[in-house]
Amino acid sequence: MEIVAHGIDLVDCPRIAEMVERHGERFIDRVFTKAEQAYAKSTKNEIEKLAGRFAAKEAILKLMGTGWRGKIAWTDIEVVNNAMGQPEVTLTGEVERIAERLGIGHVSVSITHTANFAIASAVALAEKRNSHKNTKRIEVS
User: What mean pLDDT do residues 92-121 have?
Assistant: First the structure.
């Protein structure tokens, strides 16, 4: 697999808290899947966890080059932790169709947060492509 795109996003946690306070469940249901909501609610720092998932979704849209528009729904991107605590991405709906069109086979994401900020970095991976004869490739393992 090779890296074909990267996206990064920084979110202000108090901004997410404000959105939750102002719009409540309407905001939460529009942006986060039930699994993401359950995970965040199970922690002592729910807003930080929500902000991290929000940043991850933004980072993924950036690596696809689309931003949030058209038929894309926030819940087309789900970020849940595996048994080891590592976030894993599942794409559905319009975002999945865009990823397939771009040849993206997997998205890897890393999230970190404090009480004030959440940041996520997302990397799109695809099967190796044939390189041009005049292109020199350097691969790191």
Answer: 96
